[in-house]
Every structure is written in structure tokens, then in C-alpha cells.
Amino acid sequence: MERIKYFDYEKVAKEMNMPDTTLKKIEKEVKEEFPKDKMMCELHVLRAVRSKYWQKTIK
């Protein structure tokens, strides 16, 4: 069975050259906040990736 994807945040993260470790950290934080709502989880990860805030924390 194929896993349903609501938002392709992984593609956006790759296009923005986000390190995999950073994406995993964001995913973990968001999953803790929305453990039972996959759509909200993916939406918030996408918003975090697109915000570019993560670029300020990585140097």
C-alpha cells in the first residue's frame, strides 16, 4: 500500500538545500505537536522549511 502524501515538503527541502539532519529535527518536533494528524504535521513541516528560518541557525 502506498503512503499518502499531502504536501511534498521533502522535495522543497531538497530544492532549498536543507540538510537531512535539519529536516529530521523539524519532522520530530512537529510530530510531537501533532502525533495523530498527518496532514497538519506535513503542513507545518512545509511551512517551517519554506520559512527559511532554519538557514539562520545553520552556519
What does this structure look like?
Helices cover 68% and strands 0% of the residues. The chain is mainly alpha-helical and 59 residues long. The chain is globular, with a radius of gyration of 11 Å.
Brief rundown of the structure:
Helix content is 68%, strand content 0%. It has helices at 9-15, 20-33, 38-51, 53-57.
Helix-strand blueprint:
Blueprint: H1 9-15, H2 20-33, H3 38-51, H4 53-57
Helix pairs in contact: 1-3, 2-3
Q: SSE string, helix = H, strand = E?
A: HHHH
**Alpha-carbon Rg, integer:** 11 Å
What structural category arises from helix and sheet content? mainly alpha
Quaternary structure state of the chains depicted = single chain
Terminal-residue CA separation:
40 Å
Shape: globular
Care to count the β-strands?
0
**What's the pLDDT, averaged over the residues?**
90
